[in-house]
Amino acid sequence: MSMFWIVIRQLAETGEAMATSKKVITREEWEKKLNDVQIRKEDMNKLVMNFLVTEGYVEAAEKFRMESGTEPDIDLATITDRMAVKNAVQCGNVEDAIEKVNDLNPEILDTNPQLFFHLQQQRLIELIRNGKVEEALEFAQEELAPRGEENQSFLEELERTVALLAFEDVSNCPVGELLDMSQRLKTASEVNAAILTSQSHEKDPKLPSLLKMLIWAQNQLDEKAAYPRINDLSNATLEDPAI
Amino acid sequence: MPSTSSRHELSELLAGLASNDWEVKLGALRHMKNKIIGKKDKKLDFVELGAVAAVAKTLSDALNVNGEGNPDNIKNNIIIQSATVLGSFACGFDAGAQAVINAGAFFNLARLLSIQDAKVVDAGARSLRMVYQSKLAPKYNFLQDENMKRLISLLSNENENVSGLGASIITHSCKTTAEQVALCDAGILEKLTSLLEGSISQRDASLESLATILKNNTEVVLKFVENENGRSLDSVIELAKNKYPRTRLLACICLIVIRNTCPSFLQDIGIKAKLVRTLLELLEDPCVGDEAPFAFSSLIAQKEELQRLALEASAIEKLYCQLQKDPLRPKYIEGILLALADMCSMLESCRDSFLKLEVLDLVTKALSHDSDDVCIAACICIRSVSRSVKNLCAGHFMKDTIVTPLVKLFIKSSTAVQVAALGAISNIVVDFTTRKSAFIQCGGLKELVQLSESMDGSVRSNALWALRNLIFLADNKLKEDVFIELKAPLLASLISDPEPFVQEQAMAFVRNLVDGCIDSIEYAFTDDSLILKAIGKQLQSTAKVEIRIQGMYVLSNVAAGKDSHKEAVMNQLLPQAVSIRDQYFVIRFLQSSDSQLRTATVWALLNVTHPRSDPGAFGRYIKLQEVGIITQIKNMINDPCLEVKLRVRTILEKYASFGGSLL
């Protein structure tokens, strides 16, 4: 029995020792280590270009290409088309956006029932926002109801959207968030992603993944060491470790 | 029925199409395109109202016109837009594809591929690809040289829609071994492998085509695996880890096809585990469609080891989890149920897991689904799970909640559904604890007997199978109830049924019927021995060994009764009508190469001549000796089958003092 207690005590002691034995790295040491890591300019340029292209900043991408000599991995002309669609949705001109998508690639909406439903849903929201109640009802019946019939998983969202029509004060009703700009942005982002995928391009830029990796790696390292951390991603300054 | 708004819209559009002004035509086409994309209901309405023919004519006119004042780019735009509209009609929609073909547009769309305008080619290729996704597309003849050349040039084209078209054609039309070999010989495998490095759609299309060419063709699979020292196969294995779910699924399907065709490949435990895990993940992914559970089934069906791996990877839990979601598409539910059926088809551990999780409740609910295919899948699942002997014998399946919906399915008109339900019931009625009361109480017996009179042979034979299992080791009361319902004349006619499978099951039924106590044997003698005579007649004429075996076991069971029973059997064994030159069927059976038949025959002979103390036993032995049957038996003293040997020796031992030694 006593042997048991000796072992337990020993384990507790080593545990404590481990808790205080986190490695401490000073700013000086850290910065020295960082300086030793080699990063290539071309890689950074590519990341920037990738971000501009994926997010659709055509002019910026053009200028960046001229000034840095970095080649984009997709044709900038296709970005213009894609941005026209995204902007149309963001301005609430959904019908126009649909026509543009169909001109760009007629298969996208034919093979993406969820995306098409969301676009039609956005159209309905815009009609309601503009006070065109009768038109909205007709649209819901003619265009959206059949989507719900073809695919039952859309029914819930459809009901939420139609519920907007039941409220006088739409901005205060339970489904009022559908009228927010955020809903338009959500739909716009979905269309953007679908177009990118159809062009065999990555729908997400690489930059966010890198930042996520950084945060994850720091969290892992936190368990083993105290070191200068980057806490604010937007300015990326090193903050001294708390000792 | 097309809606009023559709009629109205279309008549305006058709007016636009009919205009001589090309700008107006173009406008009408673009309007129609935007009206139908993404809307199946609109496509259906427009197809019914004849829109496709009008668009096909517009395309044809534009192709055949020669300048005439209208600039080329407008003409090309009209061609592009009409092709796009036709393609959209055909997209994922069989009625649309059929309409496009019927309107004669197919040939014109193919012409677009040779036009010197990249956008026109692109539109044509896209539309044709849509048509080829439908089973109704015209078959492509690969065995013709010109066609093969054309296919190769399609696959070599840089445009992903054109190369994708080539791949779709293969997936659609390659059906026979000869075609697979022809494609392989023409170097198509290499072309498809290079497309694996292309864009997403090229990769996916190529994976589908590869699976089609490789399926069940050992020669082609060998060539593929050896291609470039295994690099082609490695590419596919890599794609099974791709980040796009659909690509992962298609790559897995390809690998499964290779494994199933040539079991010596992809035997590595790592690959097997990876396939199992990947497919189970894909089950949960909504954008992968309904194919994932079917792919999973093709991986594990009939393969114990893979079922074990899947069980360890919590496959039953995951499948159950999917089944609980709502709403689900019928095709997907069917796939999940069939996957569960495959999982439980061989291993008791899987069935245990299934029953513990109470998946059975959901599966029995599916028995009342609107879709026939879902009902069938649910029946197959229950049949698999009810192979669990311990649960079966404990009566866990003989419950009202399970039996009543199954019996309801008997009344459905589709024979496929009836057969599936019969399959499930056949197992369930093998139950010893509850005396099958749930089944009898819900009117199952009556329905079963009705099905044994069905017009469809497979329904009759499956109904008899269920009846046979129902009376297996059943008590006298149940046998009586069954016999009253079935009646001797029906049974006799089933014994002489035109379908051999029905005859076999009918005989097997009688075997179980007369087995047991002596009173049961009397059933064979009702209505002037109607049944016994039918069996004797069948034994004389049938050539099928399975029927002969069942028949002999019937005679053997009857001969286990009283003296009069044994005499009756003798009359069947030695029919009067046989002339001296013809051999008695008994002798033919004894000489059979099938040990089961020899065994059954020898049992019958043993039973007619035993016990030795029976008044007629000796007389029967002499009769058998007279016609040479005993001589035949003596030749079987050292029969390779132990059971035969023992019975033969028993017969001869008892009569040793009468004409013949054992040696």
TrEMBL record, chain A:
<feature type="domain" description="CTLH">
    <location>
        <begin position="78"/>
        <end position="135"/>
    </location>
</feature>
<dbReference type="InterPro" id="IPR050618">
    <property type="entry name" value="Ubq-SigPath_Reg"/>
</dbReference>
<dbReference type="Pfam" id="PF08513">
    <property type="entry name" value="LisH"/>
</dbReference>
<protein>
    <recommendedName>
        <fullName>CTLH domain-containing protein</fullName>
    </recommendedName>
</protein>
<dbReference type="InterPro" id="IPR024964">
    <property type="entry name" value="CTLH/CRA"/>
</dbReference>
<dbReference type="Pfam" id="PF10607">
    <property type="entry name" value="CTLH"/>
</dbReference>
<dbReference type="InterPro" id="IPR013144">
    <property type="entry name" value="CRA_dom"/>
</dbReference>
<dbReference type="InterPro" id="IPR006594">
    <property type="entry name" value="LisH"/>
</dbReference>
<dbReference type="InterPro" id="IPR006595">
    <property type="entry name" value="CTLH_C"/>
</dbReference>
UniProtKB/TrEMBL annotation, chain B:
<dbReference type="GO" id="GO:0005737">
    <property type="term" value="C:cytoplasm"/>
</dbReference>
<dbReference type="InterPro" id="IPR038739">
    <property type="entry name" value="ARMC8/Vid28"/>
</dbReference>
<dbReference type="GO" id="GO:0034657">
    <property type="term" value="C:GID complex"/>
</dbReference>
<keyword id="KW-0963">Cytoplasm</keyword>
<feature type="repeat" description="ARM">
    <location>
        <begin position="443"/>
        <end position="470"/>
    </location>
</feature>
<dbReference type="InterPro" id="IPR000225">
    <property type="entry name" value="Armadillo"/>
</dbReference>
<keyword id="KW-0539">Nucleus</keyword>
<dbReference type="Pfam" id="PF00514">
    <property type="entry name" value="Arm"/>
</dbReference>
<keyword id="KW-0677">Repeat</keyword>
<protein>
    <recommendedName>
        <fullName>Armadillo repeat-containing protein 8</fullName>
    </recommendedName>
</protein>
<dbReference type="GO" id="GO:0005634">
    <property type="term" value="C:nucleus"/>
</dbReference>
<dbReference type="InterPro" id="IPR016024">
    <property type="entry name" value="ARM-type_fold"/>
</dbReference>
<dbReference type="InterPro" id="IPR011989">
    <property type="entry name" value="ARM-like"/>
</dbReference>
<dbReference type="GO" id="GO:0043161">
    <property type="term" value="P:proteasome-mediated ubiquitin-dependent protein catabolic process"/>
</dbReference>
